[in-house]
Structure formats: structure tokens, C-alpha cells
Amino acid sequence: MTGPYRGGQIHVLAERCSTCVFRPGNLMSLSPGRLADLARENIAADSALQCHQTLEYATDPAPPAVCRGFYDSHAERVRPLWLARMMGLVTFDPAPRKVDQ
């Protein structure tokens, strides 16, 4: 499977998936500070967090896409996301409807 960049576009979910780590309530049972670490690591690498429901190991994964919660919170701080948005190279894919935990 390829990543969120394919066909000359960066694919981002149109909305947060049902178990998005950026939704209130810690739906993925992350340890304290883990979400902040994930965000910080991706920003430092000028990379984007891929939605966990689009990862290869997910049950019945959707096509790879950037996590919408990450995009909404941090796209301005990640140069490739910022540039793709400015250049009109972002495609918004439907969010997976299946709960995948």
C-alpha cells in the first residue's frame, strides 16, 4: 500500500474517523502524553500523522490518508502540508465509518 501522498495529491480525511486520537475521551486508550509525543515527533520530522484506520495493519483499512485531527491541529506547522494546501494539492477522502480498535 502507498502512503497519503499519491496521484500528485496529499490525501487527508474529510472528517475525523470514529476513533480519532484527537477526539475527546482518549478513544484509543493512549498512555498519558503519547498524543503530544506523536504530534511533536511528526512536526519535528516535517511529516504528518496517518490515520490509524488507514494503516496497513488495521482491519479492513481505508486508503492511506492523513489524520484529520492532526491536519486541523498542526497542518500550519508541517511544511509539506502547508505547501500542499497553498498549491491546491490536498484531496479530502471520506472518513472510514467502521470502528477499528
Which features would summarize this protein structure in a list?
101 residues; alpha+beta; three-stranded mixed sheet; 11% strand; globular
Fold and architecture overview:
- The protein has 101 residues and is of the alpha+beta class.
- Helix content is 26%, strand content 11%.
- The protein is built from three helices and three strands; from the N terminus they run ββαααβ.
- It has a three-stranded mixed sheet.
As a percent range, the share of strand residues is 5-15%
Please provide the count of β strands: 3
Shape: globular
The largest sheet is: 3 strands, mixed
Series of H and E elements:
EEHHHE
Binned, the helix content reads: 25-40%
Number of domains: 1
Based on CA atoms alone, the radius of gyration comes out at 13 Å
Q: State the secondary-structure class.
A: alpha+beta
- Supply the number of helical segments: 3
Query: Could you name the ranges where pLDDT drops below 50 across 5 or more consecutive residues?
Result: none
How are strands sequenced across the largest beta sheet? 1-2-3
Mean pLDDT: 89
Our measurement of the CA-to-CA distance between the termini, rounded to an integer number of angstroms, reads 20 Å
SSE topology:
Layout (H helix, E strand, L loop, with lengths): L4 E2 L2 E5 L20 H11 L23 H7 L4 H8 L3 E4 L8
Parallel strand pairs: 2-3
Antiparallel strand pairs: 1-2
Describe the structure in brief.
The chain is of the alpha+beta class and 101 residues long. The protein has helices at 34-44, 68-74, 79-86, and strands spanning 5-6, 9-13, 90-93.
